[in-house]
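Tutorial, part two.
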Amino acid sequence: MKIVIYIESLRTFTSGTPHRGVLFKLIELRSNDEFVLVLRKGGLPEHMQELFNKLKKFSNWSLRYEKISRKLVNMLALLNFKNHCEIKAEGDVYLSFDAEYLGFKNHPQIVTLHDLSSVRNSKSSSISPLKRIARKFTIENGIKHADHIVAISEFTKNDLLDYFDMAQKEITVIHNGIDKKWFHESISNTTSYNDNYWIWWGAYSQRKNLERLLQAYELLLKETDNIPDLYLVGNQNEYFVKLLLIIEGSKVLKRKVKIYPQQDIDNLKVLVSNSVGLVFPSLYEGFGLPVIEAYSQGVPVLTSNMSSLPEISGGLGVLVDPNDTIDIKNGLLKFNMVQHNHDEKLKQWAEQFTYKNSALKYAELIDRCLKK
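Running the prediction step on this input gives:
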């Protein structure tokens, strides 16, 4: 069987990470199948080069570049051109790790929906208005014409059904997984960190709700002593500048908030494992990988009572209203009483979210689509 997979979305570091892992496992699991991986022309980021280097151990795949550039694809999406993302590779089944419709000739076709954050709320979206218009058409076009849809959470599935008229479409929920390194024995800590800190990590954006988190944290610090420091981990961008102004403008925040750049998985695991909890009150998440990554270390989580986060946290976290600064503050006060003792329940919950489990479900879906 020849399986064609459009992997353009895997260029994105954060959101592409789970499906880079799934792709590797899928190729490993289906060793008797031939995989054609399709990309648009352009330079490869380091994490994509690392992926292809890892895939060299397998002989059942090849890489194909499409002639039409990503820029032109986006322009055609703005013009509502149905076949804007058509690919020319021939196969028995077609899979996209995003919502792109791969052309009317390519069936059966499976598309993947991460979330509707780019079209649901313009204020929390991290992309420009023009890109949001193109993105909305891409998603609607993809899910309308695909033979099957994968959603990364029950929340994303229900959000899709609520936003679009998709009552007749088959939707399968395949949760994201995390890297197997998170499940290895703890890495020895060779770096000196404060023994008492909460941590947040990810890509800085409006929907992460960090401004309100800082406001709530500042209120708590003014009311009570013995509150953990707050570590923020991620690459700096335009939104981060807003956060830095808030931190620098507050004497208590300036003293208690520590900034770290994006870390590789080994160093991030050390930071997470040594923390006393993850604080993650996002306004909107299609999944929320840091919740599972924290759980894999037995680290407790404070998170939002909205979007996918109650589902992904599995009833094991402290939930707060992300739109209410006082509720976040009160949640932090409650969270400060939670003991960080590498809770086995958290680790057991995390163990179901692996690349292998996700790949097995994709493999089952591929076979099911071919039998129709």
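The CA atoms of residues 6 and 191 lie 40 Å apart. In part three we will examine how such features are distributed along the chain.
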